[in-house]
Design brief:
Elements: H1 3-18, H2 23-34, H3 44-56, E1 61-65, H4 71-77, E2 85-90, H5 93-105, E3 112-116, H6 119-128, E4 134-139, H7 146-155, E5 157-166, H8 182-196, E6 200-209, E7 212-221
Length: 223
Amino acid sequence: MSGSQVWDDVDFYFSSHLTPDDDVLQAALRDSEAAGLPHISVTATQGKFLQLLAEIQAARNILEIGTLGGYSTIWLGRALPADGRLISLEYDARHADVATRNIARAGLDRIVEVRVGPALESLPKLADENPAPFDLVFIDADKSNNPHYVEWALRLTRAGSLIVVDNVVRGGRVVDADSADPDIVGIRAAIELIAAHPRLTGTAVQTVGSKGYDGFALVRVLG
């Protein structure tokens, strides 16, 4: 049996036991696929991981950078209390339309807001609103801008907040210091920023599964 088949089988085993079929989430994936969105949503087990992180954090305010079809947004939104708030930033208006419908179907449209446009334009506008500090920030957008997203996440959070940066391994290519790929350059810059910043402490976890070989950085904001 190939390595990738083992990864798929293990993912199926865990998801079938720990994240059983959910009509709303399955519909979100189906509608995303029907609309031609790329197949880059988090897996069910990863979505459940994000939900648990938000619940452990007792999050009331969540920021997501990169909405896609709203699959991860739904997982995160389900962790919020009735008066919680989740703001998700999406570059592509077509993706945002799909996500908005999926979020409404999940009954989360009262606490989730999708904002359309380049995140590096939306983030300064968000900061100008002086929002309550975000308890958790999930970064899953264009990897080349990861260091900028981490800097904005730090600005918009508080001591004790969590920052999750997805897709930091890229099949192992993150170790290539000579890579000219903007994604790899951005990921490495973000990791080095996290390592050097006096107000951040973090780690990175490598993962395998139905989406291949990748991983995420988990970062805590210090006082």
